[in-house]
Amino acid sequence: MRAVTILGAMALTAAAVACAPRADPVREGRALYQEYCAGCHGTQGRGDGPAAEGLDPAPADLTAIAARNGGTFPAVEVMATIDGYGLRGHADVMPVFDPLLQGPRVMFETDEGVMTPTPRRLVALAAYLETLQG
Ligand code: HEC
After folding, report:
1. What pLDDT sits at residue 57?
2. CA-based angle 79:126:30, to the nearest 5?
3. What is the mean pLDDT of residues 106-128?
4. Nearest residue CA, atom 10 of ligand 1?
5. pLDDT (tens digit, 9 = 90+) per residue, 31-89?
6. Ligand 1 centre and the CA of 38: distance in Å?
7. d(CA 125, CA 131)
8. Atom 34 in ligand 1: which residue has the minimum CA distance?
9. Under 8 Å CB-to-CB from 77, ≥6 apart: which residues?
10. How many angstroms is it from 19 CA to the middle of ligand 1?
């Protein structure tokens, strides 16, 4: 009986963890992007939003992140840039987005075999940006 209860609890946990990614992160990320990022980075991510004019440095072309990184999309670095903890020196230009760091967390593999609880909205944004890579 006990074993059954434990198995049941494990199944529930697994279901809860599995549910979060199935909530379509790309769609959530696209909506967040249009709300928080498109003003500077442009609706297509090319760095040509209406608020980009006069910014120095100019907003990055987010469709070329993988290309700039030898063909690999660096999801963890991208999330670090967005959440303001990245040491990339542009925190003054790009605001830190508190609303993106709030809300539920999901487990994200930040290093090989290392799962880190990460704000779901950040993961969603990174998933969306990955779809923009040319
Ligand atoms: C106020 C304008 C502004 C807004 C809004 C903004 N950014 Fe940026 N972003 C910049 C600028 C400027 C840079 C380039 C800084 C540099 O080159 O040092 C940048 C760089 C980046 C980079 C680094 C790209 C690379 O390869 O180096 C990423 C990723 C990024 N932004 C994502 C986002 C996301 C996602 C959002 C929305 C949550 C966002 N940005 C909102 C101005 C903005």
Report:
1. 86
2. 130
3. 95
4. 59
5. 999 999 999 999 999 999 999 998 888 999 999 999 999 999 999 999 988 887 544 54
6. 10
7. 10
8. 37
9. 69, 86
10. 30
pLDDT value for 101: 87
Q: In testing the pocket of ligand 1, which one of 37, 68, 88, 123 has its CB within 8 Å of the most ligand atoms?
A: 37
**Closest to 77 in 3D by CA, of 126, 21, 10, 6:** 126
> What is the rounded distance in angstroms from the CA atom of residue 56 to the CA atom of residue 129?
22
Residue 39: both structure tokens together? 């003003």
pLDDT (0 to 100) of residue 83: 81
User: For residue 33, what are its two tokens?
Assistant: 């992007």
Of all protein residues, the one whose alpha carbon is nearest to atom 21 of ligand 1 is: 60
